[in-house]
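Quick question: what would this complex look like in 3D?
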Amino acid sequence: MSSSSYSNYTNSPCAACKFLRRKCTSECVFAPYFPPDEPLKFANVHRIFGASNVSKILHEVAPHQREDAVNSLAYEAEARLKDPVYGCVGAISVLQREVLRLQRELEETNADLMRYASCLGGETSAYGGRRG
Amino acid sequence: MSSSSYSNYTNSPCAACKFLRRKCTSECVFAPYFPPDEPLKFANVHRIFGASNVSKILHEVAPHQREDAVNSLAYEAEARLKDPVYGCVGAISVLQREVLRLQRELEETNADLMRYASCLGGETSAYGGRRG
């Protein structure tokens, strides 16, 4: 929990309770992760996952992992709002294609390297080619 | 829509309507994408996103993109059930690290290549190094 979100929390209801128009108590599971100065973060996860599913996930994970869980949910929600068809799975496809492209490029570069090594003769062991 | 899911749909309620215990009509937005022989697909997206959010997303996207939308939602839901903290954002982090590793490896291999080229003298133009 960042100190800024905590001080905000003590002054006013968290973004989740403000959005859901309910009293924000000291036991509020959302308060440490949805400070009042970031209303969009909660609005996004609520729109994509629903407050009750977010709360369920938060209760499923250990307290020290809840900030990471909220941030990954917020990332997924934002991606789905930007791209309703693919959401963040679109980023996975792009990255998978990039990994394949780099692996091919590396294989070709290693093949070039081996050709140079054989031109120089007998020095292959010094630059044996990098493994991708 | 696959022919198998359609034929299943005509015989029995889709997996969503079966799960939600409601009548599956010819207008059911879920039926083409949640055939009755894949009950887990709907159970997963319902558990993570909620049926109403999935329905909202399906209505937001064009009919020809709905199958992709459902499949990406099912992928995200399954990833979140396996890893409640990071969901499919975990896969994004792994892939981003792999891209960085391959880019570094490619840079180093290109540097080796340039060293070989300078040893052979004047042949740099033939293998000018690959761009990562």
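Answer marked as accepted. Confidence is low (pLDDT under 50) at residues 1-9, 123-127 of chain B.
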